[in-house]
Structure formats: C-alpha cells, structure tokens
C-alpha cells in the first residue's frame, strides 16, 4: 500500500531513551505513542483516575497541520482506559513533550508500564477559518434542529 500523502515532521531524538514511534502497518492512520515513564517506574491508574503520561516525543509540525492523540481501541475495550480529552490536539506551534491524558473508566486498577503503547497519533490538515460576520444565516431544512431532532415524525407514526 502506498501513502497518499507524505509529510516530513521534525522530531527530537526520543527524550526518554525509547525508540521513536512507527506506523505498525502500511495502512495505519496513526502511529502508537509509547508510555515513557522512567526506567523501573510504573503508574497505577485507579478506577476513574487520570494522568498525563509522558511519551518522550517532541515534534515540530509544519504550519497547517495538527496531531490528534486518540485512544487505542484494544486498551479501551479490554481495560477501560481511554484518552480523556480525545482527540487531544497537538498544535503546530507546540514544541514541548507530547503527553497522553489517560483515564481509567474500568472497574479495576490498571498498571501502565514503560514501553507500553498507550494511544495513537494521527496527523491531519487544519482548516483555518475567517469568521465573517453577517446579519442572517441562509435557511436550511434542518434549521436549528439538532440533538436527535431528525426522524421524530417517523417515530411518531410507528409508535
Ligand atoms: O492530549 C494532548 C493535548 C495537548 N497537548 C499539548 C500540545 C498542545 O499544543 C498543547 C495545548 O493543548 P490544548 O490547546 O488542548 O490545551 P489548553 O488547555 O487549551 O492549553 P493552552 O492554553 O496551552 O492551549 O498541549 C498534549 O501534549 N497532549
Ligand atoms: Mg489551547
């Protein structure tokens, strides 16, 4: 499989002595972020506890791009651990260490270890908008309906 879009992203050598992350397969949308706790240290996330987990990664995204920090489905399904602010946003002008805000929504404590893959990073283009103030917005069929507004007529008929 060939990539449809290739982007060079500058990265510092891994800040905590681990290998740089890599895409797991040719078609993977994201590369896994690794828990970069100090050697010999582990972190126990009690149920409903949260933590900013270091990844050792510091990047310089080109202008016009962002990086999203997304959960790994396996970790979420098996242990209830997900990214609290998903998708986390890494701005193009951020130069600090990327951290993963994990929360344990499971019923049992979860131990996070150095080297463990804890989330994934997807780089995406950003649309920069110019807000143009107007007196009225154009009319649409939906109008201001939302939050479950569609299909209500059909439900009323069948119900
Ligand atoms: O999951 C995340 C989310 C953010 N960041 C870093 C990169 C990002 O560019 C910066 C700010 O993130 P955000 O804008 O989401 O946080 P904020 O609460 O608005 O802080 P700030 O006022 O610094 O923008 O923090 C991470 O490392 N991981
Ligand atoms: Mg912000």
UniProtKB/TrEMBL annotation:
Keywords: Hydrolase, Magnesium, Metal-binding, Nucleotide metabolism. Pathway: Pyrimidine metabolism; dUMP biosynthesis; dUMP from dCTP (dUTP route): step 2/2. It catalyses: dUTP + H2O = dUMP + diphosphate + H(+). Its EC number is 3.6.1.23. GO terms for molecular function: dUTP diphosphatase activity. It comes from the Bacteria. It is an enzyme of class 3 (hydrolase). Substrate binds at residues 72-74, 85, 89-91. Its cofactor is Mg(2+). Signal peptide: none annotated. Residues 19-151 form the dUTPase-like domain. This enzyme is involved in nucleotide metabolism: it produces dUMP, the immediate precursor of thymidine nucleotides and it decreases the intracellular concentration of dUTP so that uracil cannot be incorporated into DNA. Belongs to the dUTPase family. This is Deoxyuridine 5'-triphosphate nucleotidohydrolase. It comes from Ancylobacter radicis.
């Amino acid at each position: 499989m060939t990539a449809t879009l290739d982007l060079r992203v500058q990265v510092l050598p891994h800040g905590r002595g681990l290998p740089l992350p890599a895409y797991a397969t040719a078609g993977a949308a994201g590369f896994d972020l690794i828990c970069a706790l100090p050697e010999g240290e582990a972190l126990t996330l009690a149920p409903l506890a949260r933590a900013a987990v270091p990844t050792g990664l510091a990047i310089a995204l080109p202008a016009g791009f962002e990086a999203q920090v997304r959960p790994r489905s396996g970790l979420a399904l098996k242990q209830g651990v997900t990214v609290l602010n998903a998708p986390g946003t890494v701005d193009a002008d951020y130069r600090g260490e990327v951290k993963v805000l994990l929360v344990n929504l499971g019923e049992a404590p979860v131990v996070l270890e150095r080297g463990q893959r804890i989330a994934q990073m997807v780089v995406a283009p950003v649309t920069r908008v110019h807000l143009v103030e107007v007196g009225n917005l154009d009319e649409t069929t939906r109008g201001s309906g939302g939050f479950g507004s569609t299909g209500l007529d059909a439900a009323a008929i069948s119900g």
